[in-house]
UniProtKB/TrEMBL annotation:
One of its GO terms (molecular function) is L-serine ammonia-lyase activity. This is Threonine synthase. It comes from Micromonospora sediminicola. GO terms for biological process: isoleucine biosynthetic process; L-serine catabolic process; L-threonine catabolic process. SUPFAM superfamilies: Tryptophan synthase beta subunit-like PLP-dependent enzymes (SSF53686). PANTHER family: L-THREONINE DEHYDRATASE CATABOLIC TDCB (PTHR48078:SF6), THREONINE DEHYDRATASE, MITOCHONDRIAL-RELATED (PTHR48078). Keywords: Lyase, Pyridoxal phosphate. Its cofactor is pyridoxal 5'-phosphate. It holds the Pfam family PALP. Gene3D superfamilies: 3.40.50.1100.
Amino acid sequence: MHLTHLECPRCGLEHPADKPQNLCGCGSPLLARYDLATVAATVTPEQFGLRPADLWRYRELLPVADPRFVTTLGEGWTPMWRAPAYGHEIGIADLIVKDEGLTPTGSFKARGAAVGVSRARELGVERIAMPTNGNAGAAWATYAARAGMGATIAMPLAAPTICRQECLAAGADLRLVDGLINDAGREIAELVAGSDGRIFDAGTLREPYRLEGKKTMGYEIVEQLGWQVPDVIVYPTGGGVGLIGIHKALHEMRELGWVEDRLPRLVAVQSTGCAPIVRAFAAGEARAIPWADAHTVAFGITVPAPLGDELILTALRDSAGTAIAVDDAEILTDLRDFAAREGLLLCPEGAACLTAARHLRAGGWIRPDERVVVLNTGAGIKYPGLV
């Protein structure tokens, strides 16, 4: 393992990586740092193709030292589908969908859970707790069960029913909350505070290793394109861990010398019913103001006050990207249109990315000759009744 330390992106303070860590004292999430010079001398991009087709192929850039603690269900290495019919319709000839719906728990959350649970297990954690909009809780409960760890999951009553069932099937202590994810977060914070250190808070960006699992999407996109970067990556943004992770992966690859200096423009997609990042980006702010009365059919991006707002906004501006909010009615229309034309049923969060790409192409922000990758972050069949 080439993990060296954890670093606070806000105040620059370094933290040891050999014990469980949550936020920096200044309140910022922590980022895992690696000895990239040694990684570059140890492995070349060509070697990854000889390894198993899962996210652990990038083990030199992941935080688990002892392979005995790796907790896996074969997550990662999801397909990249070209979408010529829909792409032609909206004016993007080179439109590609990375389909995270084919991960073990049916969403991209399995990546973060696999790496987060593996590292927590290695560091001696026996029970994790977290708030969730659904898919993350299902993934962490599943991987915790596989690792022999306990899990307490707090979930809004309105979350997808199948995610609730996944948590119960995995034996998690499931707590349903009449409210939004921030209300579930308060319940978990009280639980952790009263546990005398026996329960570890694994909420979004409150531990540094979920991000490391999510960043493997960035490595895969580039490897699957022959170690070439696309022009644009469009990402549904609630807590924003995937977008932050992809941005981190791209910078690691550039420092490793595996890609050229030109990096993709990142797009954060939100719903008009919950768009704190879009509002902050448009106003030129460094932080997002919590969104009042948040609601959207794309439940996974209903995050009124994302903890990683600074990191999301930094990733967008650093990549010359943008943030866009799309309407629920258009999300559902594009979900149905795409399924009819391409034969792939997206989750509503993935469909939101199509709506965003359509608007950005119509407005000229995306040019007709550009290669655009959109992330479908979950399986459409987990959302019955939307089509």
